[in-house]
Amino acid sequence: MKYVKTIGATFGVAASLVLAGCGDNTSQGTQSNEEQVSISQALDYTITGIEPGAGMMQLTEMALNEYENLKGWKVSESSTAGMLTMLDKAIQSEEPIIVTGWNPHWKFATYDLKYLEDPKGTFGEVENINTIVRKDLKEEHPTAYEMLDRFYWEPEDMEQVMLDAQTVTFEEAAKKWAEQNQEKVNEWMEGLQSVNGEKFELVSTPWETEEASSHVVKFVLEQLGYDVTITPVDPIIMFQAIANGEGDASVAPWLPVTHGSFYEQYKDDIIDLGENLVGAKVGLVVPSYMDIDSIEDLEPKE
């Protein structure tokens, strides 16, 4: 069982009274007010989550059912920003915390973090991020279709945009990345015919990973003459929008696990252009200072 130490909140006051009236009996007071609790108890059997409805949240709920030792655990609904605030607060105080995590993400460049091992494979292995488009996109917007079919970048590209976006807007961060990676951008645009202000809607999710990719694609499409709008929605709505033609394309689906159930539901009504990024990962994440390595190291709530 993994433990963390806690000291009773009243110890400081009690110790001062002992010092004032009883000489040097402080060691006995310290021992009586110091206790050990497990990491699971210190966390109140709670995993810090993100937006309800996110694929990551569904996978975490599945893990709570899959692992016997997670009996009685819960995942708190929050937002991505809220989760990151809680993570930062815990790390500043070197307190235990478990969060729903994924990479690429700037938090791995900012903090010393690790994934908990997942022996049952609930969170899958390496994930891909795919590009999906509506069925008639190639006929109506051949330039955009071809550019999206070519769009592919690396996890470190996405992380750089996300990191820059901590101090500037995603729009500015995407432009900066494109200007610094002009050769790659030129490959996506080479030989394509420009358009004249044709409207184009990218449907995304509210994750910072997708903010990064969507804004880079938006910037490139705008260089080709499109008037691009990014619409962030819940993952299920993203698939629905592409399937029914309300949106033109998305570079946000995480497959085969995170958004796998949504993909299976709508795969016959969309065109999948394949991976735009390989090497993504999702799972339960903790600060590296925590003395725990696996989901199975946690204990059930009695």
Automatic annotation (TrEMBL):
Matches recorded under InterPro entries: ABC_Gly_betaine_transp_sub-bd
Keyword annotations from UniProtKB, A to Z: Cell membrane, Membrane, Signal, Transport
Endpoints of the signal sequence: 1-20
Residue ranges constituting the ABC-type glycine betaine transport system substrate-binding domain according to the UniProt record: 38-179, 202-299
A single GO cellular-component term on record: ATP-binding cassette (ABC) transporter complex
Subcellular location: Cell membrane
Entry-linked Pfam families: OpuAC (PF04069)
GO molecular function: amine transmembrane transporter activity; carnitine transmembrane transporter activity
GO biological process: choline transport; glycine betaine transport
Keyword Membrane: yes
Protein name: Glycine betaine/proline transport system substrate-binding protein
